[in-house]
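dumping this here so i dont lose it
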């Protein structure tokens, strides 16, 4: 079986002295894995950064055996954020999330295009709040939609409307309800990020006997330094 495609690098692990096993999320084949022979060479490893988009040439003699990959850089994505610790850790977490929550060889172009959009979000001044909604959109695409309107009630404070969980005093950031991503405080964004992490843990990870991604903790802890 031979094909060509483009995909985002999700993970890589050393296979032997000269090669690595890598996972990509591709446009036409979904999540795939294969061996990159010579992947530890200076020429190739310099662009084997999680999040980079690569052109992939896949070859396999049998569906039961792992294929080999020949790769070339298509678009540098991650290097633009190497000096920004928060965004870099966000990329590492996001690629890890896609790796653990998507199925091998199951095409979903909407997820692929969502990754395209993800890197545009990182360039935005309001990137963090936009990322929260991006993450919710990703969960929706893999079958875990949540409408916070079903769980909250309005609370009036002067001329302002806030939202809190029903039968609770826990406030839910307004932008999770109205989807407005402009001029959101860091406190509200960070609270929203924790709420979405709770949803990930209780609704997706635990019911499927998965391990909660530790990369999320690293990302969230880095935000505390802002």
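and the seq i came up w/
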């Amino acid at each position: 079986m031979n094909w060509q495609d483009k995909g985002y690098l999700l993970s890589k692990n050393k296979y032997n002295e000269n090669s690595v096993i890598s996972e990509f999320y591709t446009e036409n084949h979904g999540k795939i894995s294969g061996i990159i022979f010579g992947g530890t060479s200076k020429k190739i490893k310099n662009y084997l950064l999680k999040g980079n988009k690569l052109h992939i040439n896949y070859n396999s003699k049998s569906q039961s055996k792992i294929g080999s990959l020949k790769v070339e850089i298509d678009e540098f994505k991650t290097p633009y954020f190497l000096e920004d610790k928060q965004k870099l850790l966000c990329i590492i977490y996001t690629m890890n999330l896609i790796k653990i929550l998507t199925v091998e060889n199951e095409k979903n172009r909407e997820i692929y295009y969502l990754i395209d959009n993800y890197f545009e979000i990182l360039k935005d001044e309001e990137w963090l709040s936009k990322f929260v909604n991006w993450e919710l959109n990703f969960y929706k695409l893999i079958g875990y939609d949540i409408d916070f309107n079903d769980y909250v009630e309005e609370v009036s404070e002067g001329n302002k409307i806030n939202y809190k969980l029903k039968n609770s005093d826990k406030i839910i950031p307004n932008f999770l309800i109205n989807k407005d991503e402009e001029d959101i405080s860091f406190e509200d964004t960070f609270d929203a990020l924790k709420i979405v992490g709770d949803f990930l843990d209780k609704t997706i990870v635990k019911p499927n006997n998965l391990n909660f991604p530790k990369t999320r903790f690293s990302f969230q802890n880095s935000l505390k330094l802002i």
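The longest strand covers residues 2-14.
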